[in-house]
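worker-3 :: picked DUF2256 domain-containing protein
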Amino acid sequence: MPRMQKKSEFPSKICPVCQRPFSWRKKWARDWDKVIYCSDRCRSNAKPGAGASSAPVA
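worker-3 :: tokens ->
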């Protein structure tokens, strides 16, 4: 059986909408490279053209 990982060992990203860090989830295992937003709420609040490549506007 594989060794259990601590939550702090999982990769994390910063949400471009709310600027909060979010970490890897098992359901995102196949699509982690494509995950941009931390939640459905942030995805719906995202402005068109916003994403991983655009810089947040302060």
